[in-house]
Amino acid sequence: MVKGYAKNPVGAHYGTGDWLLQRLTAVVMAGYTVFAFLALILHRPPNYAAWKSVFSEMWFQVGTMLFVASLLYHAWVGMRDIIMDYVKPTSMRLAAEFAVAFVLLFYLVWTAGILWGR
Amino acid sequence: MSAAPKTRPKYYDLNLAHLPPPGLVSIFHRVSGALLFFPALPVALYILHVTLGSQEGYDRWAAFFSRPAVKLIVILAAWGYAHHFFAGIRYLLLDLHIGIAKAPARSSAVIVLVLGFLAALAIAWCIW
Lengths: 118, 128
Fold this sequence. Notes:
The complex is a heterodimer of chains A (about 120) and B (about 130). Chain A has 4 helices and no strands. Chain A is mostly helical. Chain A has one domain: Fumarate reductase/succinate dehydrogenase, transmembrane subunit (3 helical TM bundles of succinate and fumarate reductases, Up-down Bundle), CATH 1.20.1300.10. In chain A, helix 1 packs across helix 3 (about 60-85) and helix 3 packs antiparallel against helix 4. The longest helix of chain A has 30 residues, at about 15-45. Chain B is mainly α and about 130 residues long. Chain B has one domain (about 20-125): Fumarate reductase/succinate dehydrogenase, transmembrane subunit (3 helical TM bundles of succinate and fumarate reductases, Up-down Bundle), CATH 1.20.1300. Chain B is about 75% helix and about 0% strand. The N and C termini of chain B lie far apart (about 70 Å). The mean pLDDT of chain B is about 95. Classes of the chains: A mainly alpha (about 120), B mainly alpha (about 130). The interface of A and B includes residues 33, 47, 48, 71 and 113 of A.
């Protein structure tokens, strides 16, 4: 018998963490979807000034930012799943994953710019 | 002792029409997710950027959205989003072992397909 073998036999749980976070971010996005949909249906911003004032509300800005941040992680896990399923050569897979990660980070910064950069 | 395992026959029926409802929900969840990542997400951010950026940008897109072809694209995008949304809620429930048996999983898949379609119809009714 080997005693004191400390290594976790089922790995580092990176997969479980991603799996769980994909679901938590889904819940955040689902909540925002219902809330933003109701807000836009109720207000129906009829012109530029109204449209702009919706997005100058602090709670709407923070909610939208939280949504996009959740989306970033959610889409990362989802796109990585798809890439791992269909793109077999390691170099191409890494290139595709890098492109997805880069683009998602770009979207995050862009969203902050749209919400607060004006 | 058995030697190398015998090669087993492989048969993947990839015809969508032959898939059971949970399979349809699954593949549409994947396809809609990929399409939401690209092109829907960058296009949505671009529209937000332009319409919030200036009165001219807002007017330009307001005029653009009044075209029937553009409305059709909006409805298709809404369908993809709605399907991903409802299918995702079904997966969350399945993860919690709610409706995990074959019969309820099958009927919830049908419900997801119908709700996605109805949501697209509702959006179509709103914007047309």
